[in-house]
Amino acid sequence: MASLFQKNIQELKGVGEKRSRLFAKLGAPTVGALLRTYPRDYEDWSQPVPLAQAPAEQACVVRVTVVSPVSEQRIRSGMTLYKLRATDGRHDVQITFFNNPYTKNLLLEGKEYLLRGKVTGSFLRREMTSPDFMPADRLLPLRPVYRQTAGLTSRQISAAVRAALGMLPNPLPDPLPEPMRRACHLCSLRFALENIHFPRDRESLEQARRRLIFEELLVLQLGLLRLKSRGRQQTSLRLEVDASAEFFRSLPFVPTSAQKRAVAECIANMRGDYPMNRLLQGDVGSGKTAVAAALCHSAIASGMQAAFMAPTEILARQHYETMRRFLEPFHLNVALLTGSVPAAKRRELLAQLRQGSIHLLVGTHALLNETVEFRQLGLVVTDEQHRFGVAQRAALTQKGDHPHILVMSATPIPRTLALMIYGDLELSVLDELPPGRQKTETYVIDSAKRARAFGFIRKKIDAGRQCYIICPLIEDSESDMASVTQYAKDLQEKWFFANTVGVLHGRMRPAEKDRAMEEFAAGRTDILVSTTVVEVGVDVPNAVVMLIENAERYGLSQLHQLRGRIGRGTEKSTCILVSDAQNEEALKRLRVMCETTDGFRIADEDLRLRGPGDFFGARQHGLPELRIADMSADFALLQLAQGEAKELLVHDPAMELPEHRGLRAEVRQLFSALE
């Protein structure tokens, strides 16, 4: 297979320069890549129905014999009809094709064919227009349907795949070692490739799918585990001082046992000969930043520097303020580096960093700049890691001699995805909320009840509380949703003329955003009308109501993140989801929000309802793209593949044995985009 990945797609019969560009657009520039471009679906041709039983307005398969030659009828310039009659033995059907002269040679009088399409017309005169067809003696029960691009049909892709299968060497080397295939009950690569594209039957298709899914997950796990082992080089940055007890004593609150446990797990890692590589996963408000601060304090007490990277300037600024507050009792120098820091201040900051007088540097992607040099970087913390690629994480760690790594995520990630995305990390979970936190009540209402919701908000404001209102759009569009700014203006004039209404959205300048958030945090703004940028906003314990307009437009995990902005104090909080959605799937999502505040249950449900492709929105997590595995449906195979990957690397860490050569090539290929 490896050599077929070197063969240009143009080596296939019928694929010229123009068509090769279309195949490249599909992600198949080579013969090998085409064979690994699997069908997105299959048409079942195995159950033909009599013409009399053909369902109305629905594609079906009929078995007929052609009883007339194809006649040609030109109806206007550039339009020719090709017509013929066929019968299933009891009823006739008139078949029409547009501008398809090839039907004369392909549909012959007296021969039997399978046709697939809609049967229309009346009981007395049945018709089919441009159906798909194949000779009845060449029955392919399950016909592949491929993802298409303009200018390239599924049938053309299918023909190219058939030609590509003909180029497979005999015998075909199999990247999966024979003992592994036997132990895991997997078919051969040849059988899998032939039956994923042109399955003999449903059972063969399932065997092929199982084998290819396992192989893809195995290769992914091998790649992630090898990334992990790269960091297994010994580090000189052993933690000498465990200052966590001192840190906990300095806190103005009692840490949860989950926080203490997570800190202890990390400290144990950092005291070893190898660098820590750990994911800290916790729901909104579970206290991850305090854990990170405890570790930074111990690292600094041991003579190291720490770096804390966040995906946005707003979040970086919030973490800077929080970390400064946590580390203030120890007189440590905490600095902030973002793209908006002026040049002169930046030069001074970088000089202090090189000298070691800055103990903790908090920032955005700006930390990755080559001018950023640490004297002794010992701990790297990244927040909302799914927004960074694996390569970015590696770039920051290269600024030290194998520093310890803590990855934090407030997005609860189902264990299936955590295994996939963070397969190279150990896992700590914060599964308790700090004491005194009230459960947030959540309700779904339609727009007819909006006025009542505004009345409820006014009562809360009169009692000295504050409120968030979330809108999906930033500026006017053709839809009936007003922009955030216009919406805020209408609120102020029609509903809350005696109150202060602030606005926050992603297109404001950083200084404007900061001012809007500072005004709200200080209590000078009663209502903050915002887009989802507030997901990563400052903590405002006095905000006890959140109303989310058009709630059906958001994923469950995003709704949960937004809801996490309230309920930060001891006062009971309320989240109101406004939606006129009639779609059952959307309503199901919103009902889940009312039933639970458990972020992990919500994440599992989100993955089940939306699928892994949409879970994070745009592909931000830096993983190589999978072609066939489905993270929500294939968890059992993922576990099996992970076990096999670990076992293989115990016996052959560099994958140098001859029987692992094929797998090593596949790992290199899958991860080539990350190198």
From TrEMBL:
EC number: 5.6.2.4
One Pfam assignment: Helicase_C
Stretches assigned to the Helicase ATP-binding domain: 269-430
A GO MF term: DNA binding
Reactions performed catalytically: ATP + H2O = ADP + phosphate + H(+); Couples ATP hydrolysis with the unwinding of duplex DNA by translocating in the 3'-5' direction
Record-annotated Helicase C-terminal domain positions: 456-608
Sequence intervals crossing the membrane: none
Any one GO biological process: DNA repair
Cited InterPro entries: ATP-dep_DNA_helicase_RecG, DEAD/DEAH_box_helicase_dom, Helicase_ATP-bd, Helicase_C-like, NA-bd_OB-fold, P-loop_NTPase, RecG/Mfd, RecG_dom3_C
Keywords: ATP-binding, DNA damage, DNA recombination, DNA repair, DNA-binding, Helicase, Hydrolase, Isomerase, Nucleotide-binding
Family under the similarity heading: Belongs to the helicase family. RecG subfamily.
Protein role: Plays a critical role in recombination and DNA repair. Helps process Holliday junction intermediates to mature products by catalyzing branch migration. Has replication fork regression activity, unwinds stalled or blocked replication forks to make a HJ that can be resolved. Has a DNA unwinding activity characteristic of a DNA helicase with 3'-5' polarity.
Protein name: ATP-dependent DNA helicase RecG
Organism: Faecalispora sporosphaeroides
Species lineage: Bacteria, Bacillati, Bacillota, Clostridia, Eubacteriales
